[in-house]
Specification:
10-stranded antiparallel beta sheet, about 15% helix, alpha+beta, single chain, two-stranded antiparallel sheet, globular
Length: about 325
């Protein structure tokens, strides 16, 4: 199926930043070791120069939430297929139902969900929840959300709302989730349909030096058997987790000082198990890992994501804030 997506303006989706505050969870051992993904017995085809061939267009749309929902608390990591189908029927938007298609523009969104039997995308900690934030990170998060709720200027919007960059790691998103993997000798390019292209060297070079920072970090990759392992550092502090339309990630978490380890594990010709581990002792009390399956989609057509900084959505949302402020000022004056 050819995907044709008319996306709602990013700022219209992202103004509401109080979706999911990071709740206090059971304290985790601060010395916990990063999760080690399982290996695969599948052997992918080879490129002409001998590397595992992962080239093609992949999709990673998911119905599974980042954190394990309350109604699934205490459940094991994996559901069975019948449980997944029941969950999909109850939670998939834009499916045939008596209630219609939902929001006015839901009809345009592609809904090719990749089957995933995880009960949460987070698989480490084992309870499927984010680890606790450090006190300093929680304070930074509160300051970010306070600024974002005021929207005094364009500087109070994060990079995705301003159409500059979408954050890495690849968390689930509601649309434009097509991703093209291209390989050449010594390089892997990962081109996401929405606002990000990553060029990953495989020659063992060191990371860039301080104080250089990139929107989505400085990636360096290597092959471990058939698994592509990418380690990324030197993220800018101008990005933040939670700036995406998938409302299963806590809003306002500042990025910038973390290390990301990604494993792309091919398990069949048409499926990659993607594991992302975030290590940041200044933000989280322990490392955490999520697992997001990717599925090959040979019919997916990637289109230009024609979003640009300073677009009308940003201008109009700021104008709306000023109108609300003026109305509030009039009410205060009338009440004197």
């Amino acid at each position: 199926m050819i995907h044709r997506v008319v996306a709602a303006p990013a700022s219209a989706i992202l103004i509401v930043v109080g979706w999911l505050a990071v709740e206090a969870v059971t304290a985790q051992a601060p010395g916990a070791k990063p999760f080690t993904p399982p290996s695969s017995t599948y052997t992918p085809p080879r490129t002409p120069w001998g590397d595992p061939d992962l080239m093609g267009v992949w999709d990673y749309q998911s119905l599974i939430r980042m954190e394990r929902p309350g109604e699934l608390a205490g459940k094991p990591r994996f559901a069975n297929e019948a449980e997944y189908r029941a969950w999909a029927k109850a939670n998939a938007p834009n499916r045939d139902s008596e209630t219609g298609v939902g929001a006015y523009n839901e009809w345009w969104n592609d809904r090719n969900f990749v089957v995933n039997l995880n009960t949460s995308l987070i698989i480490d900690p084992p309870d499927g929840t984010f680890p606790r934030l450090t006190p300093a990170a929680e304070q930074r998060r509160k300051e970010i959300l306070a600024r974002a709720s005021e929207l005094a200027s364009w500087e109070d919007y994060h990079a995705l709302a301003r159409c500059i960059a979408s954050q890495t790691p690849n968390a689930p998103q509601a649309y434009n989730s097509g991703t093209y993997i291209m390989q050449s000798p010594g390089w892997v390019a990962i081109i996401r349909e929405r606002l990000d292209t990553r060029l990953i060297p495989l020659d063992g070079r060191p990371h860039v030096g301080d104080p250089i920072r990139h929107w989505n970090g400085d990636p360096v990759g290597r092959w471990e058997g058939n698994t592509l392992v990418v380690e990324t550092t030197h993220f800018t502090d101008k990005q933040r987790l939670g700036g995406m339309s998938g409302a299963s990630v806590p809003a306002g978490i500042p990025f910038g000082n973390f290390r990301l380890i990604e494993h792309f594990v091919p398990v069949s010709r048409n499926r990659i198990e993607y594991y992302a581990t975030v290590i940041d002792p200044t933000t989280w009390t322990r490392p955490w890992t999520f697992n997001l399956p990717w599925e090959r989609d040979e019919d997916y057509t990637l289109f230009e994501y024609a979003c640009h900084e300073g677009n009308l959505a940003l201008t109009n949302s700021l104008r709306g804030e000023r109108v609300q402020e003026a109305d509030a000022a009039k009410k205060r004056e009338a009440g004197r």
